[in-house]
Amino acid sequence: MRLIQGIANFRRLYANSIDLNTKSYLSTTKRAFCRSSEHAKVVNTTITCSPFYCSNNLGSRSHSSRPEMEGIEHRVIKANGINMHVAEKGKGPVILFLHGFPELWYTWRHQITAFASLGYRALAPDLRGFGETEAPDDASTYTSLDVVGDLIALLDVVAADQDQVFVVGHDWGALIAWWLCMFRPDRVKALVNMSVAFNPRNPNMKPLEGLRALYGDDYYICRFQEPGVIEAEFREMGYERVLKGFFTYRDPLPLLIPKGKYFGQPDTPISLPSWFSEEDCKYYLSQYEKKGFTGALNYYRNINLNWQLTAPWTGSKIKVPVKFIVGDQDLTYNGPGIKDYLHKGGLKKNVPLLEQVVVMEGVAHFLQEENPDEVNKHIHDFFNKF
């Protein structure tokens, strides 16, 4: 019965017609009662929500009402020493959705409503440094241990009644999900990860040096390293163009961003695909205009530090049930040796409970936004086994 109702809701949610009538958005106050914890608690506050705005600032704005946004609630949790914003909807087994760069909780809007209709409780936080979640100044506090600590503290509050949860990750969220499964497999029931495969730690080479040797200094991860430099370039280019450039990037070749020469000519408009509208861009832009890109970029600036901190897990395997999904146009799928690693047993060796590798045809990096129906079906088919 739950599946039948869910299919009906899928058809309703993803109908071609979308109600774009403007209405005032709602202010909701939510008090959560949970078990006592020294490192995590709910901040009781009034949360103002709309597709364009979500914060604890009161006010009156208008927004377009869209089916995939209806009923999503927002609150702020004190977790691991920072204030974390989380979007949630539904009741039942928890699915924790982890976004990547330059995404926010918003990237999971299609999944949140769909899985709430299927009898799950969908949770999508803004990760440390992103969106409405606090962004510590110290770049070294964005390590694998910090971000996994955030998630454990968050789950201790929002999923206090569930020993294990389902997890879905994409991009940096996928990498964080691998770490979560490595450090705390006892908290994960099953994982669907997208775009970024698990790669075991190489004790003989720091990852940043390896990337620089393979792709050169203009490789985007290398360009993100020096604090303040790429932020200044992004400001000069304009955050709207930067966001549109990242979200519409479909070249399967490595992403190079030589100074002043990326995302086309500054006066050339960037055409948006049907799955990423001006309305979507406005939401992302509203968040990045408030705090800039530094918090998000700090994840890249800890790549070598993560390598050092994870030395005790050298040789460890991921020992939770996993399904991996990637688009065939994704640059992560077209890197050197990746296809052989995924399809000839490499990933299975390191993730022994891997059940399936799915390659979606004609889909690039942001697959959960580009083709939400198919992604949702893959996630549901897998989690429904448990």
From TrEMBL:
Belongs to the AB hydrolase superfamily. Epoxide hydrolase family. Epoxide hydrolase involved in the biosynthesis of cucurbitacin and mogroside tetracyclic triterpene natural products (e.g. siamenoside I and mogrosides IV, V and VI). Cucurbitacins have cytotoxic properties and exhibit deterrent taste as a defense barrier against herbivores. Mogrosides are nonsugar highly oxygenated compounds used as high-intensity zero-calorie sweeteners; they also possess pharmacological properties such as regulating immunity, lowering blood sugar and lipid levels, protecting the liver, and acting as antioxidants and antitumor agents. Pathway: Secondary metabolite biosynthesis; terpenoid biosynthesis. The keyword RNA-binding does not apply. The keyword Transmembrane does not apply. Pfam families: Abhydrolase_1. Keywords: Hydrolase. This is soluble epoxide hydrolase. It comes from Gossypium mustelinum (Cotton). Its EC number is 3.3.2.10. One of its GO terms (molecular function) is epoxide hydrolase activity. Residues 93-201 form the AB hydrolase-1 domain. It catalyses: an epoxide + H2O = an ethanediol; (24S)-24,25-epoxycucurbitadienol + H2O = (24R)-24,25-dihydroxycucurbitadienol. It comes from the Eukaryota.
